[in-house]
Amino acid sequence: MDDRKSLDPRAVVLMVLACSIWAVQPITLKATAEYATPVMQIGLRSLLAALCVYTLIRVRGGQVAFLDRVAVFGALAGLLFSAEFLLVGEALKLTSASHVVVLMYTAPIFAALGLHLKIPSERLAPMQWAGIGLAALGIAVSFLGREDAVPSVTMSHRLLGDALALIAGACWGFTTVLIRTSVLARVPGAHTLFYQLAVAGVGLTAVAAASGQGAVHLAWPLIGNLAFQALLVSFFSFLIWFWLLTQYKASQLGVFSFMTPMLGVALGVVLLGEPLTHEFMIGAAGVLCGIMMVTAYPWIRQKAVRNASARPA
Predict the structure, then answer these.
(1) Residues near 109 by Cβ (< 8 Å), separated by ≥ 6?
(2) Is there a domain that residue 1 lies in?
(3) What burial class does residue 232 get, using C-beta atoms within 10 Å of its C-beta: 0-12 exposed, 13-18 middle, 19+ buried?
(4) 263 lies in a domain?
(5) How confident is the model at residue 2 (pLDDT cuts 50, 70, 90)?
(6) pLDDT of 118-171, one tens digit each?
(7) Distance (Å, rounded) from C-alpha 302 to C-alpha 116?
(8) What is the dihedral of CA 198, 174, 38, 23, to 10 degrees?
(9) Is 20 inside any structural domain?
(10) How many angstroms separate the CA atoms of 115 and 107, rounded?
(11) pTM, entire model
(12) Tens-digit pLDDT profile for residues 53-67
């Protein structure tokens, strides 16, 4: 029996914090691409973060399995994780960071579809499906009329970049399904994260080196970004995410992550001086309403059940 909870205030606070960190990562990767390609940066940050996670596991007295069934599924999760960020790295070279962050966060749709089919307790009610649709529509509306941030790239390349970012979102969604429906569901989140980071670190740095993207020009902006990416993105925020997956319903967590693209655009307005368009405000309202529809449904249902049981026969 699946005993994961619906979202509570603690989960909401942690998700807001994680989403804020995730919203920044594509922006900083693109901003420091002149010092190292995004793929190389993601590989290096993954190696550094894997070392941090392994140290944390050992300090807690844990042991990481390397030759059993857990390790096999951990490696599979790592391959999906690697594919996701390889696609992100390539997409950032072809399209804007804002497009990448939006299309990556179609992941909850893919995760919800997979979990709906495989786990009875994760099946979504019609109200929740409507919420997902409204949130996705809100994301699309928020980007209508925005000027492309990569004018030097042809339309066909921008479309390819967008497609790669969308496939990256699918990889993320299917990673969630794999973790929730395999032996990894019973493994501490730090262990699962270590497998993903270790595989991604080795795989992506090797791919970067083999494809001529391995050059690294050390400079303070790059060093600062690698520290941010390794410690806050790959270590801190991912640990929060995997812990939340062990405690709360993945479908609700996934849809709540729709906040990330909205935060990414908001940060662009604050940090980069981008205009706050009417499309964005309308889209943001749609996303927030969609999140509320999905996350509030279990509370509404529980309250209705309690009210029904409290009525006199």
Answers:
(1) 132, 136, 169, 173
(2) no
(3) middle
(4) yes
(5) low
(6) 777 767 788 888 888 887 787 777 655 545 444 555 667 777 887 888 899 889
(7) 20
(8) -110
(9) no
(10) 12
(11) 0.75
(12) 999 999 988 888 787
From CA 64, how far away is CA 71, in angstroms rounded? 8
Share the mean pLDDT of the chain. Answer: 80
Could you tell me which residues come within 8 angstroms of residue 235 by beta carbon, excluding any fewer than 6 positions away? Answer: 49, 52, 53
Q: How far is CA 280 from CA 145, 266, 274, in A?
A: 10, 9, 11
Which pLDDT band, with edges at 50, 70 and 90, does 113 fall under?
confident
The tokens for 8 are 């509570």
Residue 124 · residue 77 · CB < 8 Å: no
Token match 């980071």: residue? 197
| Torsion sign across C-alpha atoms 177, 241, 96, 84 | negative
Q: Please report the pLDDT score of residue 277 as a whole number.
A: 67
CA distances from 16 to 52, 140, 190, 267, 288 (A): 23, 21, 20, 14, 12
Residue 265 lies in a domain: yes
Which pLDDT does position 83 carry in this prediction?
A: 92
Secondary structure of residue 184 in the 3-state scheme: helix
175 contact partners, CB below 8 Å, separation of at least 6: 77, 80, 81, 84, 196
Rounded alpha-carbon distances, angstroms, from residue 286 to 9, 84, 237:
22, 27, 26
Amino acid letter for position 93: K
Return phi, psi of residue 248, to 5°: -125, 165
Q: Domain count of the chain? A: 1
Angle between helices 69-94 and 9-31 (to 10 degrees): 50
- For 46, the domain range is 25-304
Q: If you count them, how many residues does the chain have?
A: 313
